[in-house]
Design goal:
By secondary structure, the protein is mainly alpha-helical. It is built from six helices and four strands. The protein has a two-stranded parallel ribbon with strand order 1-2. A two-stranded parallel sheet has the order 3-4. The longest helix has 11 residues, at 102-112.
């Protein structure tokens, strides 16, 4: 391993790697940087770029990348998606409710647990 780059990086990562001033959401610039610097492997950490499909974008550009696909990242990025999938697959999980407004959530809690 000759060099390690971190985008965007911080003071802590600068001690062991080279920080690169590119937003994790700017797939085009990240792909361009990986190609220009002949990056052997990209490891994606942040949840948002994974959920937005960074792994898929790197693979479509013939770059090696470690991270779940956009579809697989939804398990972590969307608790509602994950819980619905678990329920559909009969995987034991804690009960849950989905609310689209605060008043519905408040009524649900007060009906179950009068305060």
């Amino acid at each position: 391993m000759d060099r390690v780059f971190v985008a965007p990086g911080n003071a802590g990562t600068a001690e062991d790697a080279e920080n690169v001033d590119i937003s994790p959401g700017d797939f085009g610039k990240l792909i361009e940087f990986a190609k220009q610097n002949t990056i052997d492997l990209t490891v994606v950490g942040p949840e948002v770029p994974l959920a937005d499909g960074i792994t898929d974008a790197f693979q479509q550009s013939s770059l090696r990348v470690f991270g779940p696909s956009r579809a697989a990242a939804q398990l972590e990025a969307s608790k509602v998606f994950c819980k619905n999938l678990l329920r559909h697959a009969d995987v034991p999980t804690a009960d849950f409710q989905v609310f689209h407004d605060a008043e519905s959530a408040r009524r649900f809690v007060l009906d179950r647990y009068p305060l």
